[in-house]
Amino acid sequence: MTDPRTTVVVITHNRRPELLRTLGHLAALPERPQVVVVDNASTDGTADAVARHHPEVRLLRPGRNLGAVGRNLAVRQIRTPYVAFCDDDSWWAPGSLAGAADLLDAHPALATVTARIVVEPDGTEDPIVGELRDSPVPGPPWLPGPALGSFLAAATVLRAGAFRAAGGFHPRLWLGGEEELLAADLAAGGWWLTYADDLTIHHQPSVVRDSTLRRTHGIRNTLWFTWLRRPAGYALRRTLHLARTVPRDTASLRAFAEAAAALPWVLRERRVLPPDVEARLRTLEPAQRDSTARSYTG
Q1: Helix ranges (DSSP H) in the chain
Q2: pLDDT tens-digit readout, 211-223
């Protein structure tokens, strides 16, 4: 069942054991996808281990930690029409890459297909799956699943051309909720995003993570996205709401300080979304407000 339509891109930083496990799973897939690993300046021997144990993998070493922008580096170099992202602690289930490629083949206006996320080792659904499955975003009748307002990079197959046309991940956001801005820009370009319940990716969360830094970046990036793309009145209300509701701690204070310090470039790059895309995002507000699965903004 070799399938040449999709390249899998994995970004990694100092998670050698988890990455080698992921590469083992990807090597066993019936689709036999091309795999590109972007090593974000690991210091634990990750690059050498990949070269030794998985010589078939294309290894990129940018020499510094690019965060999510490491995916941009990889997508610029691939030649397949589709790219599947996964993290170094997640892997695609057999047949899911081919299933996503089939959906993208069949629907030319579809940019992303997000899979069901199963958390290992217990095999339970990630809490976010229910929100994806029941997404309130209105979509066209041809869409093969629920329309989404955003996507989760580690569980999504994308049309590579759409990704490049939208500019990929913004270099300033680095990592933490970086998908929201790209998703909005894809929608502004006329593309649609969907969830496919019959496709699966497995996620076994790494114990090597800085949850405080991730939350800081998540809050900061939420503010930046709001200021970059949402109407002025909404942006002000959203900012005040976040100021009232995020945890009152050093991480939140740092997030607001970093966001505010960037106002000059944010204002230079500000481009409000088209009214139809803004209306689409507004339908998500009640679900996001009541969400128990979203952790970036508290």
Answers
A1: 16-27, 46-53, 69-75, 96-106, 128-133, 160-165, 179-188, 211-229, 232-245, 250-261, 263-269, 275-282, 285-289
A2: 888 899 999 999 9
